[in-house]
């Protein structure tokens, strides 16, 4: 059985009993390591897609930098 709790540090943890049967001790891991964490809104909305390619953005950055530097 898994249970969610908030610790004093403010990070959410997933608590569960270890594999030693009924005598297993209570263990915890960060909720982000599980599928219990809320999905990142950016990842959900982007659905793995981007409007621009990294190479194109780098070229645009170089162009803007070249236009903003004064010519001799």
Name a few traits of the molecule.
3-stranded antiparallel beta sheet; 29% helix; elongated; 72 residues; single chain; alpha+beta
Please tell me about this protein's structure.
This protein is of the alpha+beta class. It has one domain. Helices cover about 30% and strands about 20% of the residues. It is built from two helices and three strands; from the N terminus they run βββαα. A hairpin with an 8-residue loop joins strand 2 (about 10-15) and strand 3 (about 25-30). The longest helix is centred in the last third of the chain and has 15 residues, at about 55-70.
Could you list the spans in which at least 5 consecutive residues all have pLDDT below 50? Answer: none
Strand content: 15-25%
Number of domains: 1
Reading the helices and strands in chain order gives EEEHH
Mean pLDDT: 81
Described by strand count, sense and barrel closure, the largest sheet is: 3 strands, antiparallel
**What helical percentage do the residues reach?**
25-40%
Q: How many DSSP E strands?
A: 3
> Helix- and strand-based class?
alpha+beta
Query: Which overall shape is indicated by the principal axes computed on the Cα atoms?
Result: elongated
The side-by-side strand order for the widest beta sheet comes to: 1-2-3
The helix tally amounts to: 2
Q: Termini, distance in Å? A: 71 Å
Radius of gyration: 23 Å
């Amino acid at each position: 059985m898994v249970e969610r709790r908030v610790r004093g540090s403010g990070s959410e943890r997933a608590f569960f009993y270890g594999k030693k049967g009924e005598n297993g001790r209570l263990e915890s891991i960060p909720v982000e390591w599980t599928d219990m964490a809320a999905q990142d809104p950016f990842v959900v909305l982007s659905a793995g897609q981007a409007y621009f390619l990294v190479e194109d953005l780098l070229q645009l950055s170089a162009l803007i930098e070249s236009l903003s530097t004064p010519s001799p």
